[in-house]
Amino acid sequence: MRRNPKDSADSSRRITRRGLVMGGSMLAFMGVLGLRMRYMQVEQADQFRVLAEENRISIRLIAPARGQIYDRNGAVIAENQPSYRIIMVREDAGDIDVVMRRLATLIDLSPEEQERALEEMRDSRGDTQVTVADRVSWDDISKVAINAPALPGVTPEVGLSRFYPAGPDFAHVVGYVGPISDYDLSKIENPDHLLRIPRFQIGKVGLEARQEDILRGKAGTKRVEVNAAGRVMRELDRQEGKAGANIQLTVDNALQGYVQARLAGESAAAVVMDCETGDLLSIASAP
Prior knowledge:
The protein is α+β, with helices and mostly antiparallel strands and 287 residues long. It folds into three domains: 5-54; 57-245, Penicillin-binding protein 2a (Domain 2) (Alpha-Beta Complex); 253-286, no CATH class. The chain is built from eleven helices and twelve strands. Strands 2, 3, 4, 5 and 10 form a five-stranded mixed sheet that branches. A three-stranded antiparallel sheet has the order 1-8-9, with no helix packed on it.
């Protein structure tokens, strides 16, 4: 059956209108999509660039050198000595249990040390550097470096450890440092970011504890580039921190050693003072 010309014209107009509406909708959609792409690629380019860099760039704290302690004549009572240590970063390591087992086959790590390090990594932020082993030998450092591809997130580095040249002569005066604990943190309001690093050393007793804020210093930062396995490829830049302030005491190192030696085997105490200035020159007791 043939359609009359009027019906054919109406049908053509309807099809044309539908085509225009669909074409207009598609053009509008493409326009919105194009504007969105332009917004993401141009307006938000810096934001996405930062996000991409965060996937390959890690910002890490640099622990400052702790201030040294001297006697009245400049003899060192407490100082820092370089030491080798092994650190691990959880987010770079992936499966930390597997990596820890591999590491334990290379260096001497007791089950207790392994469990302690694993627990600290689980309780800390993913980008926190956790000290797995401290004061290790050069042979251990070499083993870890050689097997680096099998140990993602594990890095050997040189740190500073506290050393007391006079031994026990000043132990009751100077005190000592040790790893920070949850109890230590509970006593500090707004603790420094450094104190959040597991096993960071702080003064526990004596002068080391009383003058902690002065001796600790301020942390620095460094930006390092890491690969997909979490290995540090290169250091991009570094901002050094501020070393802790040095402290000079009125005690005399030589006199203190002499008094300690004279009291050996006795049950006694001795205090030597400068009568004119009131300076405390020596303080000792035995046993």
